[in-house]
Amino acid sequence: MALTLVGCAPKEQQPKVYGRYVPERKDDFAWENEYAAFRMYGPALLPENPSNGIDLWLKNSPALVIDTMYGRELKDHRPYHINYDGNLDCYKVAHTCGAGGLVVLTADGEGTNGEGYRTWIGGPYDRWEILEQKPDRFVFRLEYDSLLVAGQIFHESLTITAEAGQLQNKAEVVLTSAQPSATGSQLLAGGGIYLHDTVDYYMTIPEVGYVLYEEDALSDKQAAQMNYEYNGSTSQGRIQISVKTPGATLTDIVDGNLVAVRPYELGDTLTYYFGATWSKWHPEN
Q1: Chain segment 52-96, per-residue pLDDT in tens
Q2: Within 6-154, where are the H helices?
Q3: What's the pLDDT score for residue 147?
Q4: How far apart are alpha carbons 272 and 260 in whole angstroms?
Q5: What is the band of 185 on the pLDDT scale with cuts at 50, 70, 90?
Q6: What is the longest distance spanned by two Cα atoms in the chain?
Q7: CA 164/CA 62 separation, integer angstroms
Q8: CATH topology of domain 18-278
Q9: Spacing of C-alpha 215 from chain mean position
Q10: Distances in Å between the alpha carbon of 216 and those of 59, 62, 197, 277?
Q11: Tell me: the pLDDT tens digits for 217-234?
């Protein structure tokens, strides 16, 4: 009896993680996994005073949405600040750390909080590089040439890893400076969450360097108005944003940011984690 072997082509794995440079939207860099999408601001946006903070896009299912949302905004002129079919950009960053961006603190008696710290937020990135792009893993690096901290200019190298099935992204930060200064030996650094106009609900677990913030998805008045005009409702669920900084020595509200920070020495690698979820998310949407 003859035996015949039949070859079968391997089934193509559908990507669960995705990201790219977005030149058509002022040098954005955007990425996502099943749970949420994020973006960071590039040099073309500099005249609008953006930050090195992280913007958050909500999604109600594991489906990849970045290209759809940019296409809808830029080609169809349908603002991505409106929830049409389960995807929504309603989180306002402006010049803040946003939803998990880097926060650097220095001891400062003139700080606006009672603890005597001052927060420092940077501007848009200068260069980008994709290090790894697989269906279940996306790694990229952003370089910032001019992070100003207490009168000293730092270089920030930020590597972000997004993986399928993980609620949080991994951020690895290295700060360096050519300027001789004592500032670098007095830094606290880690991830932060901007609290917008009001503190809704937050929690801290200092033992593991964990902070969490929850707010109404339409806390931004402009987004609330746009969604009301289209959907007839200002109810779009709630957002939860979390940050974990291993070794954090301060988990508290500083200058309107919920931070998890630790002492930082220039040249070292600071590792922290950040992520977000939406109450409307469901795996079968």
Answers
A1: 999 999 999 999 999 999 999 999 999 999 999 899 999 999 999
A2: 66-74
A3: 96
A4: 9
A5: low
A6: 89
A7: 10
A8: Beta-galactosidase; Chain A, domain 5 (2.70.98)
A9: 16
A10: 15, 21, 12, 12
A11: 999 999 999 999 998 988
